[in-house]
């Protein structure tokens, strides 16, 4: 399957190159596409450069524990698989390959409502801890029904993605829905979160938070966790990066809920910076997609392994022995950074 000679030793750059050469052109264009000018996507990637890591090596730290507890699950690292509905565009069996790869990598898989695979299909063994994420564009009643189903099937949590009030765009085009036909937006209010909260006893996750106001409303409506995300730059053009919005969301709701981050994470150092700003864990999308395109389940596992090892190595070089000991003290703010640390 893979053009990489030895996938177990492949670098992230090699995996990205292999994915580009092996994925169907339409699938690659969909995965790499960003809204309108692409400003938000570029900012997601660029903003990481404005935060530096403070190296400390005289602490006696020789290794670091990357494991975390999340939604009553013990995970190998705070590196989670983001909900992506377009894995099917790689090949028909890609959803299952991503599930197996995430399980082998000790991760948690966030399942997209837009996926071709059913909520039952993801729950077939082997699978990692699962979180189902609904889209209200498919109907509020359907979200409630599938969330109940996910709870019955043993999912670790359920939730909704709320930033699709306007459809995803690739350049100036709104792509076809995974169910066929034109994508459409929808309205969402705190009442929708409250209704879902009443229907499930599982931890409730709300994705697509980019400001303190929405974070507070989501938590007041019953969210146990919020995901700071701009949908990878595929929704609003000229938006802040998720990393920029993260500190204010942590300040607003970090004592009342779990704060996760998503959008633009490519390296273990990116993940460490989000942890230092208060995120509990990080969702990774496009690198996992490339792992699946380059090598199926093995490619997904390899991507997760690389990111975890980069995170572990960076923790040691910052003199931090575990992810739960990470603080803002390891960060140095570049003078041109829009992120300011109190």
What is the count of helical runs? 11
Specify the biggest β-sheet: 8 strands, parallel
Instruction: Write down the overall geometry.
Output: globular
Helix/strand order: HHHEEEEHEHEHEHEHEHEHEHE
Low-confidence stretches: none
User: Do you know the CATH architecture?
Assistant: Alpha-Beta Barrel
Look at the structure and name the CATH superfamily: Aldolase class I
The figure for the number of domains is 1
Q: Report the CATH C-level class.
A: Alpha Beta
Report on this structure.
- This protein is α/β, with parallel strands linked by helices and 342 residues long.
- It has one domain: TIM Barrel, CATH 3.20.20.70.
- The chain has helices at residues 12-22, 25-32, 39-46, 94-104, 119-122, 140-152, 190-199, 212-220, 242-253, 268-276, 286-317, and strands spanning 51-53, 68-70, 73-75, 79-81, 109-112, 130-135, 157-161, 204-209, 225-228, 258-262, 281-284, 331-333.
- The strands form 3 sheets. Strands 4-11-10-9-8-7-6-5 form an 8-stranded parallel sheet. Strands 1-12 form a two-stranded antiparallel sheet.
- It is globular and about 55 Å long.
């Amino acid at each position: 399957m893979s053009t990489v000679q030895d996938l177990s030793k492949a670098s992230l750059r090699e995996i990205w190159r292999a994915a580009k050469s092996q994925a169907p052109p339409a699938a690659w264009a969909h995965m790499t596409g960003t809204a309108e000018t692409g400003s938000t996507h570029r900012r997601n990637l660029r903003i990481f450069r404005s935060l530096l890591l403070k190296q400390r090596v005289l602490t006696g730290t020789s290794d670091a524990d990357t494991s975390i507890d999340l939604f009553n699950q013990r995970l190998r690292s705070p590196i989670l698989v983001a909900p992506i509905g377009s894995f099917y565009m790689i090949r028909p069996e890609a959803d299952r390959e991503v599930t197996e790869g995430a399980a082998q990598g000790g991760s948690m898989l966030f399942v997209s409502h837009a996926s071709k695979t059913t909520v039952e299909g993801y729950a077939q063994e082997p699978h990692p801890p699962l979180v189902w994420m609904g889209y209200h564009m498919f109907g509020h009643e359907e979200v409630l029904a599938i969330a109940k189903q996910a709870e019955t099937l043993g999912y670790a949590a359920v939730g909704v993605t709320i930033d699709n009030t306007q459809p995803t765009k690739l350049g100036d085009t709104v792509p076809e829905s995974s169910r066929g036909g034109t994508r459409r937006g929808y309205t969402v209010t705190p009442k929708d979160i409250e209704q879902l909260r009443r229907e499930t006893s599982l931890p409730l996750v709300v994705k697509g938070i980019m400001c303190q106001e929405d974070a507070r409303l989501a938590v007041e409506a019953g969210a146990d966790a919020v995901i700071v995300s701009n949908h990878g730059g595929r929704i609003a053009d000229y938006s802040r990066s998720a990393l920029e919005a993260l500190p204010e969301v942590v300040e607003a709701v970090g004592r009342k809920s779990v704060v996760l981050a998503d959008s633009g994470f490519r390296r273990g150092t990116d993940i460490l910076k989000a942890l230092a700003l208060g995120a509990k864990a990080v969702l990774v999308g496009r690198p996992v997609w490339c792992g699946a395109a380059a090598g199926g389940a093995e490619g997904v596992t390899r991507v997760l392994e690389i990111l975890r090892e980069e995170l572990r190595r960076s923790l040691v070089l910052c003199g931090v022995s575990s992810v739960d000991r990470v603080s803002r003290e390891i960060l140095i703010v570049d003078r041109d950074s829009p992120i300011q640390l109190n």
